[in-house]
TrEMBL record:
SUPFAM superfamilies: Metallo-dependent phosphatases
Keyword Cytoplasm attached: no
Protein name: Putative dNA repair exonuclease SbcD
Gene3D superfamilies, per the entry: 3.60.21.10
PANTHER family, alphabetized: COMPONENT OF ATP-DEPENDENT DSDNA EXONUCLEASE, NUCLEASE SBCCD SUBUNIT D
UniProt entry keywords in alphabetical sequence: Exonuclease, Hydrolase, Nuclease
Keyword Hydrolase: yes
InterPro entries the UniProt entry points to: DNA_Repair-Maintenance_Comp, Metallo-depent_PP-like, UCP033093_metalloPase
Molecular functions per Gene Ontology: exonuclease activity
Taxonomy, superkingdom: Bacteria
């Protein structure tokens, strides 16, 4: 098993994290080869040279801390390309490919970083040149390139031999990461023929859900959609909601979101992409059976809610809360629920 960089988020880790990670690797049952990447480079503070790591590292865990060829089985070599700093000044992969012989040895390059074809930025000197990689493949010097850095599974070029496996667990929302949560199983036979298969290993989902809510039916449909999600306890939802609602419907929306906030690992509104206008409908508060001061206060809140401006949102919230508090009971009845501030994703 090869892990192509960023095994750890940084070199500054709690001892518990290091110990638990090594304990998991101990139980894998195969040799594990770890490549230092940009988050955990082989610098002076490297986690891989720490006293704790060296003391607890299992026998089946190997750090690819030396650039170049490593024999791992008869006729099989790993070509390691570790990072020694967070910002290399040249293409580390091309450096290792230069002069590699095509001598029948099956070689797997284990590298980290961006590829120029996917990120053609001339200001990034460390980008991996795909042309040099494909040339080494074509002449039989290397047979597969395992890459780390991108969190989504990605094939690079057309050879079928250059892949980012992506992060084994989801780390961002689905509109940012298109295909995370995989491990790649690569079958490289003695003739050099290759088969690459992806296996789902991620257990979490991060979902961005965009929904228009303009009436009670839209809110019911939103609730049904949320209800159909499996494994809610391992699902994070970011809601982008737009629409215009009456105060009554907005209260129903709040009740819906409150329910599913309790069920999901996290459910938040995406503040930058959420825009809901609350406009009191005619006669919406006529059946509350109030008069005097309370009636005057409701009338004033309705005017503020419809006027827009800084006080509009507060007035809309107050009216929505009023309806929720009096739902089916009147002002003097028991409280069935209350509005609460829900986390917002910026």
């Amino acid at each position: 098993m090869v892990v192509c960089g960023d095994v750890f988020e940084s070199n500054q880790l709690a001892p518990r994290v290091i110990s638990q990670a090594l304990e998991v690797m101990r139980g894998v049952g195969v040799d594990v080869y770890l490549l230092p990447g940009n988050h955990d480079p082989l610098d002076a503070a490297s986690v891989y040279t720490s006293e704790l790591f060296l003391a607890e590292k299992p026998a089946n865990v190997h750090v690819l801390d030396t650039a170049g060829r490593h024999r791992v089985a008869p006729g099989v070599e790993l070509v390691a390309v570790p990072w020694r700093s967070k910002a290399p000044t040249h293409d580390l992969v091309a450096e290792q490919l230069a002069g590699l012989p095509a001598d029948g040895t099956r070689r797997i390059v284990v590298a980290h970083g961006g590829v120029d074809m996917l990120d053609p930025d001339p200001t990034k000197p460390a980008l991996i040149a795909l042309e040099a990689v494909e040339d080494a493949i074509d002449r039989g010097a290397i047979h597969y390139v395992a890459l780390g850095d991108k969190h989504s599974r990605t094939q690079v070029g057309s050879s079928g031999r250059v892949w980012y496996s992506g992060a084994p667990e989801v780390t961002n929302y689905d509109d940012v990461e298109s295909d995370p949560g995989h491990a790649l199983v690569v079958d490289l036979d003695e003739s050099g023929a290759i088969q690459v298969d992806a296996h789902d290993v991620g257990r979490w989902r991060f979902v961005t859900l965009r929904w228009s809510v303009d009436n009670a039916r839209d809110i019911a449909d939103l609730g049904l959609n949320l209800e159909l999600f499996p494994d809610k306890e391992r699902t994070v939802v970011r809601l982008a909601l737009t629409g215009t609602l009456s105060v009554t419907d907005n209260a129903a929306l709040e009740e819906c979101l409150d329910k599913y906030t309790r069920l999901f690992a996290s459910l938040r509104t995406w503040e930058r992409h959420t825009d809901i206008a609350v406009v009191p409908a005619d006669g919406e508060f006529s059946d509350l059976g109030v008069g005097g001061f309370a009636e005057s206060a409701i009338a004033e809140l309705k005017e503020l809610a419809a006027a827009g401006g800084e006080s509009s949102a507060d007035a809309q919230g107050a009216l929505s809360l009023l309806l929720r508090l009096t739902s089916g009971a009147g002002l003097g009845g028991p409280v069935k629920g209350g509005a609460k501030k829900r986390g917002a994703a910026a």
